[in-house]
Design goal:
It contains 8 helices and 12 strands. By secondary structure, it is α/β, with parallel strands linked by helices. Helix 6 packs across helix 7. The longest helix has 16 residues.
Length: 218
């Protein structure tokens, strides 16, 4: 069964969420911030649910998860959604009060996206995407990114030369029922560029008033 780890400032407050997820065929455990390392020794989760209101703590933990290539879903208040899109590196979110069915669907979507890759390589100049290992390198140098950054890059690189609107990218990478706007795409493209582009490498092109396309290899 898929392993889910819930990290919370108050672990007792999310015990009911863990119990409900257990009933949906997940193996769910709960950790406070101080016990995270021990939980990873005991269990390597497939998905992390993060219920923390302190943005510094969220940023620190989500960066640690991206280094481990583990998707992160933030459990948060609706009013903090815009800051999650603009500042924090998480793959999805669910707002309070939590709907268990929605949470299950979002976890399953992330797991499906993560597991459907095969072992083929996508190569575009110096950029290589190993879809079996979910690894990205540029000129042999590994690049660490979040799960959604990786999914967006893989989608664009799989369709070089094609122009995609922001709405299309949201639907294809995040899903048609994702509660977010155009800014989500712009933020993720900006992060991708900072990680994979430099004076010698330019992969993602902005198409004014439309969206983005991945440049064909010359």
């Amino acid at each position: 069964m898929p392993r889910v780890l819930i990290i919370a400032e108050d672990p007792e407050a999310v015990r009911q969420v863990a119990t409900e997820l257990d009933h949906h065929d997940f193996t769910c455990s709960v950790s406070g911030i101080a016990e995270i390392d021990q939980q990873f020794i005991e269990q390597t989760p497939d998905v992390v649910l993060l219920e923390i209101d302190n943005h510094d703590s969220i940023g620190m933990i989500s960066r640690d998860m991206q280094q481990r290539s583990i998707p992160v879903i933030a459990l948060t208040h609706l009013e903090t959604v815009s800051s999650l899109d603009g500042q924090l590196e998480v793959d999805d979110f669910v707002t309070r009060p939590y709907n268990t069915r929605e949470l299950v669907v979002r976890i399953q979507r992330l797991l499906h996206s993560r597991n459907r890759d095969n072992a083929e390589l996508i190569r575009c100049g110096d950029l290589t995407i190993d879809t079996g290992r979910c690894e990205v390198t540029v000129a042999g140098s590994p690049k660490i990114m979040t799960f959604k950054e990786y999914e967006l890059l893989k989608f664009l690189a799989s369709n070089p030369g094609r122009v995609f609107t922001r709405d299309t990218l949201l639907n294809r990478v995040w899903g048609h029922d994702y509660f977010g706007g155009d800014r989500t795409i712009d933020v993720h493209v900006r992060r991708l560029r900072s990680k994979i582009e430099d004076s010698r490498h330019c992969f993602i092109e902005t198409v004014r008033n439309i969206g983005y396309r991945f440049q064909r290899t010359r």
